[in-house]
Amino acid sequence: QVPPSQCFVFDPAFSEQELALLGELGLRLLPENEEGKHRVGEAATLFYMIHCGKALYNNLLWSNWALGALSKMVIIGNSFHGIEERLLSRILERDYSYIAKVLKGTEEIAFPSHPHYTDTFNDTSIHWFPLQKLKELSCEVWECVEEPTYQECDDLEIIRK
């Protein structure tokens, strides 16, 4: 029931044909590559980010690093707990610190498996950030708000501006 004019889309790999179709559907195209740093507004916001790189999730969290903003977000994308399991903790904390910091404030439910799409949605989860859980995070979690730079990141999965 969300009007198309309130749906924003962006992928740096969209073709001209895809852009034209999305425009015809009435969806709003973000004018530039925000590298995932899109801020939520006043309304609850759903981010559909299937198979995105870790830096996009990390950037999105950073750009909304406040109780009020995070508690309005829902992310459908790669499992944060899966990311935590696959990365060394020092790499997670160094390169993707906002994912690492918000894990204890996240509720996550895996998509149910489907026999025809096991390779497509095998690591997809729905994430949300209940206000009460966010309030339970330590004060130190909220103090550091440096913009991620990924200087030491070897496997950056993001298309830069």
From TrEMBL:
Record domain SRR1-like: where: 4-128
Record InterPro entries: SRR1-like (IPR012942), SRR1L (IPR040044)
Pfam family, one: SRR1
Cellular component GO terms held in the UniProt record: cytoplasm; nucleus
Family: Belongs to the SRR1 family.
Protein name, per record: SRR1L protein
Natural source organism: Nothoprocta pentlandii
